[in-house]
Design goal:
Layout (H helix, E strand, L loop, with lengths): L1 E6 L5 H19 L6 H6 L3 H17 L2 E7 L2 E7 L6 E4 L3 E8 L2 H5 L3 E5 L3 E8 L5 E7 L4 E5 L3 H15 L6
Parallel strand pairs: 7-9
Antiparallel strand pairs: 1-2, 2-3, 3-4, 5-8, 6-7, 8-9
Length: 173
């Protein structure tokens, strides 16, 4: 019996913002006071094309990151490729509390991605990869906290309830 979820950061709107800033810059470069001549562009080889495509390439690579979260009777494990090559595993005996909670990504953590809590709370870390406002909060016996966003929060909640009743795991609230 295992719950597994894979999801990544989907920021499609960042393509629009990047295009909205690059297009006027390119037009000003070309057309302002006769701009850069075509011959000068040829002398620069692929530098202008590279400068235009690089932001889109970076956004594309960021969107290829995948968080894999697994929950079973032994504990919780996760892997966030390419930042974690090996899964991190937390046993239930090391977890004091595990529950679903509401969060505000911007107010509490300053945005999306791998974040630490604002206001110098370095023991509170989060993996926020979607714009939903509920996730799995883990509180460890050593005082650290870890929050995971989820696209399938209702299924995860039902799985945790089932896991608590079947295996009598005291950490699940």
């Amino acid at each position: 019996m295992e719950f597994e979820e894979k999801h990544g950061l989907k920021i499609w709107w960042l393509y629009l913002i990047t295009a909205a800033t690059l297009l006027p810059t390119l037009l000003i470069l070309i057309y302002y006071k006769d701009g850069v001549a075509l011959q000068e562009f040829k002398k620069m080889y692929f530098a202008p094309l590279f400068a235009i495509l690089l932001p889109f390439l970076i956004i594309f690579l960021i969107q290829q990151n995948k968080l894999t979260l697994k929950i079973n009777a032994e504990g919780v494990s996760f892997r966030y490729f390419p930042f974690h090559f090996k899964p991190s595993h937390f046993r239930w005996m090391n977890i004091e509390k595990a529950y679903i909670r509401k969060y505000d990504a911007l107010a509490e953590y300053g945005g999306y991605g791998i974040k630490t809590r604002l206001w110098f709370k370095f023991k509170d870390k989060a993996y926020l990869l979607n714009d939903k406002n509920r996730g799995l909060q883990l509180e460890f016996k050593n005082g650290k906290k870890l929050l995971f966003s989820s696209n399938r929060i209702d299924e995860m909640e039902m799985f945790l309830i089932n896991l608590k009743t079947r295996y009598n795991i005291q950490a699940i609230r």
